[in-house]
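Chapter review: from sequence to fold.
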Amino acid sequence: MIAFIKGILAEKSGDSIVLDVSGVGYQIFVPGQVTERLPSIGETIKIHTYLQVREDAMTLFGFLSKDDLRIFRLLLGVNGIGPRGALAVLSVMTTDDLRFAILGDDATAIAKTPGIGVKTAKRLILELRDKISFEETFEQKAELSPQAPSSGAANGVKSEAVLALTALGYSRSEALKVLGGIEITENTGVEELLKHALKNMSLL
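The token string follows.
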């Protein structure tokens, strides 16, 4: 198993990159969103990888974070979605957006992926819903904001805010997404959180 590859970025295209590691070029297929976040050619980068081994080929798929790789692996476990399909999903959606769509039962958003129909999207949600929790989704956001609390009380406030937003007519995925972008302190109440959420909703 190749856990990651660190090397000089030699080439990058729409769906793949080439890393130069001590004179050996490794072609790695990546989501479209990854190529947009890559440094300039000639700079050193680290890519977390998944190696697909078949009788006729060995193919590397790569991601900028371990979390992206973990979600990719979860997608591979869905019946009918192979590495190319999983890569396509993560080219259309960020891992956060995918989590919100799964928790919000938003098959339409996932079905925007080329080659993934509504039926497959619903199966994806059904098979992964129990593997992605409400708390985990917000913890991923908290990692990017060290001051944000990760207590059960904070998650309880978010849960109440989700219920309030869905009662107002917003979809669960929309509610989860907008709340995920709001920094919460230990003193943040549901009313204050809703005010921020509704303000952000108007900007979507």
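Two observations follow directly from the output. Residues 144-151 have pLDDT under 50 and may be disordered. Strands lie at 4-12, 16-21, 24-29, 44-53, 58-63.
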